[in-house]
Design a protein that fits this description.
The complex is a heterodimer of chains A (98) and B (211).
Chain A (H helix, E strand, L loop, with lengths): L2 H50 E2 L2 E2 L3 H14 L4 H18 L1
Antiparallel strand pairs in A: 1-2
Helix pairs in contact in A: 2-3
Chain B lengths: L1 H18 L4 H11 L2 H12 L4 H12 L5 H4 L8 H9 L3 H8 L4 H32 L11 H10 L6 H20 L4 H6 L3 H13 L1
C-alpha cells in the first residue's frame, strides 16, 4: 500500500466530517433523504461482499455459515461483541470439521 | 460495550491489513487519521482481494461520506472554538453520534461524545496493533474465523437502518446489486454501485409519505 492512498483516504474522510460540522443543518436538510438510506445500501453490500466474495468470484464456505450464525445472534438481540464471537467461533468450527 | 466491540473488530482489521501488505505504521495511521472502521475495512479488503487502489479509495470514501451528515446531528455538542470543533470533527463516527444523540441533556451529550470518541479511538488502535502482530504470527487467519468477524459486525450496524420499509428495500436491492456486480466488475466497484439502491429506497419512502 502506498502512503499516497493513505493520505488521500484520511484527508477525504476528514473533509467529509469537517464539512458536516461547518455546513451545519442547511446542508444536511437537502441531502437527508439520500444519506438516511445510504448506510442501508452500503452496509448490506459490504456484508454480502465480505461474506461471499473472494476477489471477483463468489464462494459459499464456512465464512458464510459463520456470518449467518452471527446474524442470527444479532436478530436475537445479542450484543455486537457476542455476535462477532459467535460468527468467528462457528466459522472456525465448520472449518475444523470440514 | 460498544468500545469493546470496536477493539474486537480492530483485531481482524489489523490481520487483514497485514495480509494486504500494509506495514504496522500504515495500519495504525489509517486507524488514527482515517478513523472510520467501515472505510478502512472496505479499503484493505479491496486491496487484499487484488483490487484497483483507486476503486478501493473511491469505495472507502463513499462509505465515509455519511459522516458529513453527523456534523449537524451532534452540533450542540460541538459548540466551542474553531480548534475544538476541528478536533471534534475527527471523532465523528456512527458510534459517537449514536451515543451523543441518545442523551437529552447537552452536557451529558458532550460528555458522551468525548468519552465514546476517546474510548473507541484507543481500543480501535489497540485492536489494530494486536491484529497486525497476530497477522504476523498466524499461518492461516481463516482457521480462527477472523474473516467472519467484520461482516458479522456490519450485520449489527445494519440492523438500525432496516427498521423502515424504505431501509429494507434499499438494503435488499443493495445486496442484490453487490451479488450481481461481484463477478462482473473490478473489486471495490460493487460497493460503489450498491449506492444506486438509494434511488428505489427514496421512491418507496416518497410513496409512503403521499399515501
Amino acid at each position: 500500500m502506498s502512503w499516497t492512498a493513505l493520505v488521500v483516504l484520511s484527508a477525504g474522510a476528514y473533509a467529509f466530517k469537517l464539512a458536516g460540522v461547518v455546513a451545519g443543518e442547511r446542508f444536511a436538510d437537502r441531502l437527508a433523504p439520500v444519506t438516511a438510506l445510504l448506510p442501508a445500501a452500503l452496509f448490506s453490500a459490504l456484508v454480502v461482499t465480505m461474506a461471499v466474495a473472494d476477489g471477483p468470484s463468489l464462494v459459499v464456505d464456512a465464512r458464510l455459515i459463520g456470518v449467518a450464525a452471527g446474524a442470527l445472534a444479532v436478530v436475537r438481540r445479542a450484543p455486537m461483541v457476542v455476535a462477532i464471537m459467535v460468527a468467528m467461533a462457528v466459522t472456525a468450527l465448520v472449518r475444523l470439521v470440514a | 460495550m460498544l468500545a469493546a466491540a470496536c477493539g474486537l473488530i480492530g483485531l481482524p482489521y489489523g490481520v487483514l491489513a497485514d495480509s494486504a501488505g500494509l506495514t504496522m505504521a500504515q495500519a495504525v495511521a489509517l486507524s488514527v487519521f482515517t478513523f472510520a472502521g467501515s472505510s478502512q475495512f472496505a479499503y484493505v479488503s479491496v486491496i487484499s482481494g487484488g483490487g484497483n487502489p483507486a476503486a478501493a479509495v473511491g469505495g472507502a470514501l463513499l462509505l465515509a461520506a455519511r459522516n458529513a451528515l453527523y456534523g449537524p446531528v451532534v452540533s450542540p455538542v460541538l459548540r466551542g472554538g474553531a480548534f475544538r470543533r476541528a478536533v471534534a470533527a475527527q471523532f465523528l463516527t456512527d458510534e459517537t453520534t449514536a451515543m451523543a444523540s441518545a442523551q437529552d441533556d447537552p452536557t451529558d451529550a458532550r460528555d458522551a461524545f468525548w468519552f465514546t470518541g476517546l474510548a473507541i479511538m484507543s481500543l480501535w488502535v489497540a485492536g489494530t496493533v494486536a491484529g497486525v502482530l497476530l497477522g504476523g504470527i498466524l499461518d492461516d487467519p481463516g482457521a480462527w474465523g477472523l474473516d467472519a468477524a467484520f461482516p458479522a459486525a456490519f450485520v449489527a450496524l445494519l440492523v438500525p437502518h432496516v427498521a423502515t420499509r424504505a431501509g429494507r428495500v434499499t438494503a435488499l436491492i443493495g445486496a442484490a446489486i453487490a451479488l450481481v456486480a461481484i463477478p462482473a466488475t473490478p473489486v471495490g466497484v460493487p460497493i460503489l454501485l450498491a449506492a444506486l439502491a438509494v434511488g428505489p429506497g427514496m421512491a418507496v419512502a416518497a410513496r409512503r409519505r403521499s399515501l
